[in-house]
Amino acid sequence: MGKYGEDSKLIYDLKDQGGELLSLRYDLTVPFARYLAMNKLTNIKRYHIAKVYRRDNPAMTRGRYREFYQCDFDIAGNFDPMIPDAECLKIMCEILSSLQIGDFLVKVNDRRILDGMFAICGVSDSKFRTICSSVDKLDKVSWEEVKNEMVGEKGLAPEVADRIGDYVQQHGGVSLVEQLLQDPKLSQNKQALEGLGDLKLLFEYLTLFGIDDKISFDLSLARGLDYYTGVIYEAVLLQTPAQAGEEPLGVGSVAAGGRYDGLVGMFDPKGRKVPCVGLSIGVERIFSIVEQRLEALEEKVRTTETQVLVASAQKKLLEERLKLVSELWDAGIKAELLYKKNPKLLNQLQYCEEAGIPLVAIIGEQELKDGVIKLRSVTSREEVDVRREDLVEEIKRRTGQPLCIC
Amino acid sequence: MAERAALEELVKLQGERVRGLKQQKASAELIEEEVAKLLKLKAQLGPDESKQKFVLKTPKGTRDYSPRQMAVREKVFDVIIRCFKRHGAEVIDTPVFELKETLMGKYGEDSKLIYDLKDQGGELLSLRYDLTVPFARYLAMNKLTNIKRYHIAKVYRRDNPAMTRGRYREFYQCDFDIAGNFDPMIPDAECLKIMCEILSSLQIGDFLVKVNDRRILDGMFAICGVSDSKFRTICSSVDKLDKVSWEEVKNEMAVLLQTPAQAGEEPLGVGSVAAGGRYDGLVGMFDPKGRKVPCVGLSIGVERIFSIVEQRLEALEEKVRTTETQVLVASAQKKLLEERLKLVSELWDAGIKAELLYKKNPKLLNQLQYCEEAGIPLVAIIGEQELKDGVIKLRSVTSREEVREVAEDLKSGQNRDFNFYYGTTPFSYKAQEA
């Protein structure tokens, strides 16, 4: 209660059944802060992947659900400035690169820069949040539309809006940070200076981490500000431009995060602060993207990891199959057999093809007498006779498994 | 805000008035009147959120998992999942809540232990009580006639938790089930094989699997003269049959054995760590046409296994690592943060698990201490002289032996297969050479 502002109405409550009043968790950040305060921890680097619950109006096609995974990583503790913050951004970039879902950009801003910027432009404290949410729309709509909303709907004076416009339409690298540090008005604001100073340091570290080319200092990044107190960032995927030379458009955020130094203090009985910085990967969106890609590529996804099917060529060989499959399991090989006493060979081969099982070990009456098993590649159909005692090694060799039992 | 402050002031004044009256020993009637006014004022004030004392606890019957407990949990799940995969099982996941009507009528007396969600204007929901009913719902909903699946997830029961015995209101279940019409007893046998593989691999001691059959029990009670109506009570006297709510459940229970105090003593069971059986009628309860899908499965009692493994590690005084970090990047002198950041970044890019302290100028001793506490085996020390010479000092934390390595070779010397995305097997199936 009291942590999510307007979103509180989206919390799932449990029925009052006579005991404690309970609610399903809305995110992983508040439970994290509660965990830190409860255990009086002053530093930890932790990840947490779990489902959270929000009584949204789900737009299922856009991949928004009422129960969905969050993938959080946070560093809590008092450290030298910007080093953990830089590591969070490095992690975000590593993950998004490794997932191979396309080019991406990480927008970075700072709560203090926004505060200072709005202050010097003449935005009153009470309008801060609502102006922020307008400004944040700049990634999707034009400045004219944003300005109209601020002036027309939110009662902002047009001159103030214009001043804001001079700032928020800017984005760039560390040179923009340096430029703003020289800005006559902004440099008079203590908060903005702090934020700009930290961002400058951040960019130094990001360069050492080799990711400065993926980072954009974007003054219009202004959403999700409820508990952030410093640097904030958001990663967006870039669509390939239709025409060469077109500016790549963001198609939606796939990760976000920032520094939030005040949250744990809200839980600690003595109000002790534990500074935190972290990130959250938007995995549900990523699931959609990966699924779409696999469909487009018409790639078949295996749902099991079975390496070999133990099959029989004739009837009355169930006992032999059971014995062999058990030997393979005991040797750590992933194996299956059909739950039929006398399955047809063709059906067993078909099962392999449908499930993507690469190998089939065929037991036959003659081969039993000869002390061999026929090992066949399901795709190439090439067959070779393998001595019973060599079978485990041969399968492990072909499937790239280490010879020791895992 | 102002109204509240004013109210608070009124409450304070009224409280003082009541106290004054009591001191003066005014008439009981008068005091009662003024107390009533005070209570009314207090009621207007309502709960003060900003001053509310936070009761920092997890809900009754639940717990957080600390890094240490997670390390144990991860190891245990790893053993279990490997086994399920070895047997060709697919994995599914279902929502934590189901429609209330899905769960109603499935758990008999235990239904009162189901957590309901508050009626907030939408569908009536309840938290899942087990993974079997969701499984049956999944099969019926997707009209599946056969599947071999495992499902590891938390379930919810408003029990009276006996925390010391490892029983909670939120706890993990680890289910494996084979659904489908097959030749008799082959899948049943595989379930028992899996149970044995898992319990052996977990190395939690000797165990015994007790097996029985519902039809034998039925028959036995019948010939002994037990009436149908007394069946269930007699059953629970004979043994606690967990799954007796399913009409056709045969019962299998895996029981951990204690080492006998004296040679020759009969090993005693210390409690069930896994259970399962065949349940052919459940899916039919969900299917609109009542189509039956025979099922057989098992459930591993992981919470109890967590406790056992934790206890063993404590007894052995074994330190459990909570991270997998292979090397700490350290600096021997001041002003080497840049170099540390560059090097740790190179190691990460090469897939090496590395860390650095978040300090500009950390003391070497502190960095080494950090490694010892976390169990990090190697430390890569950057020093001014070494930088000039183009080398990094690589030191084993435990043996304190130093190995000088040339800077460029450092990555390749520790490189590991970094098959993060694909795990141990290809994520996508392409026509491949065997």
List keywords for this structure.
2 domains, homodimer, elongated, coiled coil (chain B), 37% helix, Rossmann fold, Histidine--tRNA ligase, cytoplasmic (chain B), BirA Bifunctional Protein, domain 2, EC 6.1.1.21 (chain B), five-stranded mixed sheet, HisRS-like_core (chain B)
Describe the model.
Chain B: Residues 306-333 form a coiled coil. Chain B: It comes from Gorilla gorilla gorilla (Western lowland gorilla). Chain B: Residues 3-59 form the WHEP-TRS domain. The structure is a homodimer. Chain A has two domains: 5-297, 2-Layer Sandwich (BirA Bifunctional Protein, domain 2); 308-399, Rossmann fold (3-Layer(aba) Sandwich). Chain A contains 14 helices and 14 strands. The longest helix of chain A is centred in the middle third of the chain and has 19 residues, at 190-208. In chain A, strand 10, helix 11 (318-330) and strand 11 (335-336) form a beta-alpha-beta unit. By secondary structure, chain A is of the alpha+beta class. Helices cover 37% and strands 20% of the residues of chain A. In chain A, helix 2 packs across helix 8 (190-208), helix 5 runs antiparallel to helix 6 (158-168) and helix 7 (174-181) runs antiparallel to helix 8 (190-208). Chains A and B meet through helix 1, strand 1, helix 2, strand 9 and helix 11 of A and helix 3, strand 1, helix 6, helix 11 and strand 15 of B.
Task: Please work out how many helical segments of chain A DSSP would assign.
Answer: 14
- Give the rounded overall mean pLDDT of chain A: 91
The portion of residues forming beta strands of chain A comes to 15-25%
- The helicity of chain A comes to 25-40%
Secondary-structure element string of chain A: HEEHEHHHHEHHEEEHEHEEHEHEHEEH
Radius of gyration of chain A: 29 Å
Class from secondary-structure proportions of chain A: alpha+beta
CATH architecture annotation name of the largest domain in chain A: 2-Layer Sandwich
Enter the CATH topology name of the largest domain in chain A.
BirA Bifunctional Protein, domain 2
Q: Name the CATH class of the largest domain in chain A.
A: Alpha Beta
How many distinct folded domains of chain A?
A: 2
pLDDT < 50 runs, ≥5 residues of chain A: 241-249
The count of DSSP E runs of length 2 or more, i.e. the number of strands of chain A, is 14
Strand order of the largest sheet of chain A: 1-2-8-7-6-3-5-4
Distance between the termini of chain A: 47 Å
Described by its quaternary structure, the protein is: homodimer
Gross geometry of chain A = elongated
Question: Greatest interface and its residue counts?
Answer: A-B, 76 and 65 residues
* Largest sheet descriptor of chain A: 8 strands, mixed
- State the fourth-level CATH superfamily of the largest domain in chain A: Bira Bifunctional Protein, Domain 2
